[in-house]
Structures are given as structure tokens and as C-alpha cells.
Amino acid sequence: MKTSILYIFLLSVLYACDSHSLLPPKQQLDQQIAQLNDYSLLSGRLNDQLCEEIETHAQEIGNDSLLLATRQIIYTRYCRLQDTAHARMLLDRMKPYAIRIKDKHLLMNHLRMAFLHAQIRQPAECERWINEARKYAYINPQNWYITAASACLECGLYPQALIYADSALVNLKYKVISSPHLVKAIALSRTGKTAEAEEWTQRCITDIRHFQAKHQIHTISYLQYQLFMEYAVSLRKHGKNKEALSVLEELDRVSFNNVATPLLRNKDNIEEYKVRVARMLSECHYATGNQSEAIQQANRADSLQSHYAQEQMNIRRKMISESLQNELLSTRLKSQKAEAEQARLIQYILTGVIILLMAILTGGYLWWRNHRRRLRQLFDLLISHHAAWLLIHDPLPLISRPQIKLPDHSEANTEVTTKADNLLYQRILSVMKEQKPFLNPNLDLVTLSRLVGTNRTQLSTTLNRQTGMNFSRWLAEYRVHHLLSLVALRPDSDITALASESGFTSRTSFFRQFRQVTGLTPNQYRNVRKETGK
Known about the structure:
DNA-binding; sequence-specific DNA binding; HTH_AraC; 24 helices; Arc Repressor Mutant, subunit A; elongated; single chain
């Protein structure tokens, strides 16, 4: 008992040495992902190292769904950082399991790659990834058409953008202004289809104004911003500077809704759209002869540009500062991991040593107990053999009664045999009383002979001579008498329930043997007891 308490105490101390290992693996992974999300500006080697550690940890957990979800988070981060190489490697690792379970992100992940190459102006790669995404268009065909159209428009594939936009409009169930309408209007303008482009542009702008007035919305999306700018540029080319001013002033009054931009949003032309609007306003005012307003808008554009440059500078400083902090944190983390690994190794070694010692102690104790039991059995056997030998070779009758005539040889053998049987029978009764082997339903002649210290033949012969019954009948009678003693001690208990406590193997054998011994069934015996009041 003391050894077990000491063992438990040592284990608790060992596990307390490594507090990190006490956290569940899933919780450790969540902490690492939260840490990655906190470092929004982290990039380069530190970002790759942290992402690799998170993916390795997810692999060690062994849950495919969790690993896929973790890789999805890392993949989205690499897309946000425009790291095409790592994003493609993550996508290749995700693809086999995603295809097997028909993951809903399968199509969008390929479209992300297409849009990512569109942003960095790689039209060939963009078109290749759009065609690659076609394999999984069955997941959401409409989304594939819409995103393919936006990606082609972004990287300058205007004819393809027009085709995808028309396909999306064919399957479009709602009539409200949407991205396929905007993409088609812009693509028509940039492919030189002026008349059709003007018609679609005016229709889209009218629908946008009507929708904003109806729902009191004062924001526009990136595609809406592009459409308004395309329309303003077109009006200026045709000398309609006043109409262009009206469009630009309307564009200047609204704010840019970054949420409505497609897939990826960290583009310079999005962040400085106010600067571009201010410069075009300055040009239009100058063309209409309003030089003071033109100068004012030009100064405003310069001020916005300076503010934007200052913001970019602050972002770069913050990134450098965060990188230095992350470098320091990474160094500390490596040191803590090394210490934790060393503590865990010591913990495993000590645990193994303790388990080995416990096994040795347990084995030694079991061996000693078994050895002591065998010695006791051997001692009892020797005592019984010695007692039998004394009965056969006792010299006292010859010394005390020399004048008595000795019996003949046959009478002497019978007397010795009777005494040996009596002694063996007393030994049997002693074993049955002290060790109660009859409570074992599987007790047989061989088992009892081993407990008594004789062989099965001698045991069976002795029982026949002493009781006039064979072993089975004698054992049944012994069990029935034990049952009756239990009934006397517990009169309110059910006789059938007490049968299993007396060694009977089954209900059928109990009823048969009980009737053979008492001449009554258990129910009849119970009724007799009630009538007699005993």
C-alpha cells in the first residue's frame, strides 16, 4: 500500500514538471493558430516556421479532418500574403483528402489560386488555375463562373471575362445588380465595344443608385468602384466633363466597402482609390475652366497621397518591430521546447525505472506468497503421512500389553486400514470446514484430493467406506446441509438464491440434489418450515 502511494506521488511530481504537456493536443493547436492570427503582419521565414510547426502538430494529433481544417487556415494566410509557392504546396497536400470527402472548399481554393495569380498579373497561370478549378465546378457552378469572370477581369483577360460573365448571367436566378453585370459592363468597355458597354454601364449605374437609395446604403464595392471609374473615364474621352464630374463627385461621397471585394483585397489601387478620384476631379475641373477647384482637388490628392504613404510607412515599421519581437519570441520558444523535451525525457526514464521496480517487487511478492503456500501444503502432507505411519507402526500396544494374543495378519491389516480411513476422513472434513472448497461449483475429485494430500482413488475409497456414498452424492449432501444452515441463519432469504452461495452449478441440479437429500422440493421444505414454525 505504501509502495503504491509513493508511486502515485512520484508520477504526479513528474507530470507537474511539464505544464505544457498537461494541455490537450487540440488546445495546444488552438493556441498556436491563435498566435498565428495575432501576427497579421508576420511574413517570411518566421511565418513559414510557425506555419510548419502548426501543420506538424496537427499531423501528430492524427485527425484527418482537423489536419485539413488547419491546412485550410495556413493556405488562406499564404494567399493573403500572395505567397504562391507555399499556397500551391499547401493546396497539393490538401487535395487528396479534400477530394475523398468532397470538401466544400475544394473549388474555392483553386479559384483563390487563380485570383492570386491575377493580382500579381500572371494571366497564363490565372487561366490555368481557372481551368483546373473547372474539375470541381460541380460543387457550385455559379460561383465558378462568377469568380472566373472576376479573376480574368483582374489580370486583363477581358474576352474570357466577358464569356464567363455571360455564362453566369444565363444561370442567374435573381435580377438584382450583381458582380456578373458589373464584370460584363467593364469587360465590354475594355474590349472596345463602346455602344454595348455604355448601355450596360448606364443600366448598372442606374440599378446601383436605385438600390442604394432604397436601402440607404452609402458604400460601394470594388467592382462598383471600377465601373464608376470606367464610366467617368469614358465620359471624359467623349468630352463630357460635367457628366464625368457628377459621377466622380458621387463616387467621392461614398465610402469603399472592402468586404465586397472578391477573395483577396490587399491591393494598392484599392487602398488609394480616394487619391485617384481626387486627381480625376482635379483634371475635370481644370477641363471645365474651374482652376481654383482644380487646384484644391490637386492639393487634396497630394494630401491623401502623403497620408497614404505615411500609413504605409507606419505599417512597414510595425512589421519590422513585430518581426523583431517574433524573432525573440521564437528564440525563447525554442529554448522552452528544448527544456520541455529534456524534462519529458527525464520523466519517461524515471517512470520506466519506477514501473520496473514495481514489477520486480510485485513479482517477488507473488513468488514468495506462492512459495509459502506450497511449503505449508508440503508440511501438512508430511504431517498426515507421519500420522498414518504412526498408526501403522505404533509400538505401544506391544509394550503395554505383551500378554495379549496378536491378531492374525488379515485382522491387523483391516484394523490399520480402518484407522487410516478414519484419519483421512477427518482430514477431509477438516479441509471442507476450514477451506470450504465445496463452494466452488467446479470442485471435483482430483481437486479435493490435492487439497487433502492424497490421490483420487484413495479419496474415493475412503468416502465409500466411511459414508457409503460416492463422491458426487456425498458432495451434494454436504452442500445441501450447508444450504440448510444458511436458511436457518437467514430465514427470510430465498432458498433458490442461497443455492449459488452453496456451490450448486445450476437451478436444475440444485432442485434434483435437494430432493434426493431431503425428500422434499425447496418449496415444500419452505412450507414445512412455516407450518412447524422453525
